[in-house]
Amino acid sequence: MERYTLIKEVGDGTFGSVWRAINKKTGEVVAIKKMKKKYFSWDECVNLREVKSLRKMNHPNIVKLKEVIRENDILYFVFEYMECNLYQLMKDRQKLFSEAEVRNWCFQVFQGLSYMHQCGYFHRDLKPENLLVTKALIKIADFGLVREVNSLPPYTEYVSTRWYRAPEVLLQSCLYSSKVDMWAMGAIMAELFTLRPLFPGASEADEIYKICSVIGSPTEDSWADGLHLASDINYQFPQFPGVNLSALIPSASDDAISLITALCSWDPSKRPSAAEALQHPFFQSCYYVPPSLRSRPAVARTPPSARTRVPDQQQCAKKHTATLHNSKSSSNFSSPKLHASADSGVQRKLDMLNQDARKNDNKSIKSSGNQQKYRPPGKSNSISTNRVRATRVVSDASEKLANMTLGPPRKPTVGLRPTAPMKSGVQWIGESGNVYLRHAQPIQSGRVYTRKVVG
Asked: A Pfam family in this protein (predicted)?
């Protein structure tokens, strides 16, 4: 103990007193618990439940035991220092705590309890004095009455402060479990909302009386085992219908009232565990959900109306018999005369007209930019206008060619000279509006030529 300087006594209890001290070497402020009982061997010290449990547990909501010192048969526990306890915050407070503050503290305590119960211990002495607070952080302390969950009964009949003692303990049951901690938390949670104890009994009998007046007397349906415990000690419950907790705790929300009601159930088996309490809707806002996992409300995004787009497409299909595109494409004309005609002269004339239309289309595209941008149907733009014009020229030409009469080839009239061939091996001669084509050289047999209408 020569490494610590005691500054001030901050608490005194049944089993020891607590001092605020400072480490001479590091300057760290600590809390030192000085036990009133004498310990004459080191084995006796390390076998204490408080020492064994705190050495085993490590949780941010459970006070940390830094060191155990035995000096002159006096045992000292060195803990991390916390500013105050929950009772000190409530006793002189005039304004009620907000529900957010109550939720934050209770959420942390339930996390510590859940960890503690999973480690195989239950506290048995939960009360505001044993909940230490530093700003928004709260920790469970004073494990002097801690007990193993799997330890064999009988258990001590007197545990915890009377106002937070579970009814099965008040009825002297030696078979109780970690659910006594859950009852205490229900009473503490209600006190945080009202700054007044929920069951302020002056004795064990008065404590049961206060409980019955608030939550109603137990019945065979609500707690049959409790009636048997009462008959074993010749105790008869006072008859009360109970009151609505929302009337006693008007500042609490419906979710808070629901959780307190569940925690303060007569039957221990009907009380939620600490892990189950953490899943209660009252603590829903305490859980962080990444933005990627948050549910987003469905936003109705209306695509381009089908009633606008489909008729436009159908109208274009009716007006145009061919579609012009930058890449290779083909167009089928449905003129019966053209299908019936086997001569290739009509096809060559159509090729020439399509080439002219494509040249005009390419010029308009180059003038508007190298890359064509999408524009919704129905909106006027220069590219679509040029395409419509070019397509109409092709359509009109196809109708004229369909009405033409093809006859046998005639010799060219004197004075007319043939123009440059359109393609290799083919020459054409025009006379008075009629078009005739002939092959400059024979086509080799065995080769198949496909006809394409380039649009």
From this structure: Pkinase
